[in-house]
């Protein structure tokens, strides 16, 4: 059994889950300060509701793919690869946006959550529902991104990736408990910086997967209608990916250690084509530039940076 497939989902869920844990921890801390701990049950209900909703989204999207697989038609392979391409593009866009946005806005996270709590508490007879909605949206947002990533990267087998996601979520919850309940000092900025670099590389690997699915779409279209063959830049299986640049099948195969780890985490392929390399480097250049610029932005006051 290939447990390396659990690594990327562990990384994604750990980072996204810890972000949600921060929101939950801040909410519970604020409720304690204003002596409104009777509303804690709404926080826990929001957590449970967000997790259940994320799972339901996963089943819905997975059901769509399963339905396509069972549909007998000459266009079934094309539809399947189109959906895989679409899910991959959405996952890349959402994770990239959240990577940059969280780095920029995370420094004001405590203030934003406190403002949301004040708004909820000021509502007539609706404080509990407001708290529930605040936590529910935070958990669902991170859960949806994780589910979408799993579907985009592991459309054929979800069991092992789901284990990685569960372990990442458990680790994130443990870190939140240590931070808010036991008062353990955690360098949040360093955590998000390190995990952000890992996530950047993981999403970069997802870009390579999107290109693979897009290449198959063009190939299948060419088999059904020869007029689409002109879309291929080179003959053969590479089609829109261009000429072969790297062949590591004998040096660093992607089915054995350590290549299989690099494949699972960062999307490494033992055969890489010019188009894949160019798009991958372009992605790292654009998204990486925005990310590292956000890291170099002015440091907020210590009270806003260290949540306790």
Outline the structure in words:
The protein is built from ten helices and two strands. Helix content is about 70%, strand content about 0%. The chain has a two-stranded antiparallel sheet. It has helices at about 5-35, 40-70, 75-105, 110-120, 125-155, 160-180, 190-225, 260-265, 275-295, 300-305; strands at about 245, 270-275. Helix 4 crosses helix 5 (about 125-155). Residues about 300-308 have low confidence and may be disordered. By secondary structure, it is mostly helical.
Features:
disordered C terminus, elongated, 308 residues, single chain, mainly alpha
List the helices and strands and how they pair.
Layout: H1 6-33, H2 40-70, H3 76-105, H4 109-122, H5 127-153, H6 159-180, H7 188-224, E1 244-247, H8 259-266, E2 271-273, H9 274-295, H10 302-305
Antiparallel strand pairs: 1-2
Radius of gyration: 22 Å
Given the structure, what is the number of helices? Answer: 10
Shape assignment: elongated
Euclidean distance between termini CA atoms: 41 Å
Q: What sequence of helices (H) and strands (E) makes up the elements?
A: HHHHHHHEHEHH
Mean pLDDT metric:
87
Helix content: over 70%
Largest beta sheet: what is the strand line-up?
1-2
Give the uncertain stretches in residue-range form: 301-308
The secondary structure category is: mainly alpha
Main sheet overview = 2 strands, antiparallel
Tally of strands = 2
Which percent band covers the strand fraction?
Answer: under 5%
Structure described in brief:
The chain is mainly alpha-helical and about 300 residues long.
């Amino acid at each position: 059994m290939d447990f390396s497939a659990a690594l990327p989902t562990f990384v994604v869920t750990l980072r996204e889950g810890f972000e949600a844990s921060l929101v939950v921890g801040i909410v519970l801390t604020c409720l304690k300060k204003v002596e409104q701990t009777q509303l804690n049950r709404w926080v826990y209900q929001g957590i449970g509701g967000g997790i259940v909703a994320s799972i339901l989204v996963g089943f819905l999207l997975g059901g769509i793919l399963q339905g396509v697989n069972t549909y007998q038609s000459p266009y079934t392979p094309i539809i399947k690869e189109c959906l895989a391409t679409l899910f991959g593009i959405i996952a890349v866009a959402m994770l990239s946006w959240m990577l940059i946005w969280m780095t920029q806005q995370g420094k004001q996270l405590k203030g934003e959550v406190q403002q949301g709590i004040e708004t909820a508490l000021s509502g007539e007879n609706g404080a509990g529902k407001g708290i529930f909605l605040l936590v529910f949206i935070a958990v669902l947002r991170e859960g949806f991104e994780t589910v979408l990533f799993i579907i985009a990267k592991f459309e054929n087998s979800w069991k092992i990736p789901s284990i990685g996601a569960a372990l990442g979520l458990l680790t994130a919850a443990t870190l939140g408990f240590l931070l808010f309940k036991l008062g353990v000092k955690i360098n949040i900025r360093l955590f998000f910086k390190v995990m952000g670099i890992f996530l950047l590389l993981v999403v970069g690997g997802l870009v390579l997967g999107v290109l693979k699915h897009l290449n198959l779409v063009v190939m299948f279209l060419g088999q059904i209608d020869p007029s689409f063959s002109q879309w291929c830049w080179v003959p053969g299986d590479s089609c829109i990916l261009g000429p072969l640049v790297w062949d590591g099948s004998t040096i660093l195969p992607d089915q054995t250690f350590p290549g299989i780890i690099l494949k699972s985490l960062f999307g490494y392929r033992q055969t890489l084509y010019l188009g894949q390399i160019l798009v991958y480097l372009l992605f790292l250049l654009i998204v990486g530039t925005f990310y590292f610029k956000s890291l170099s932005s002015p440091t907020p006051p210590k009270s806003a940076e260290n949540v306790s």
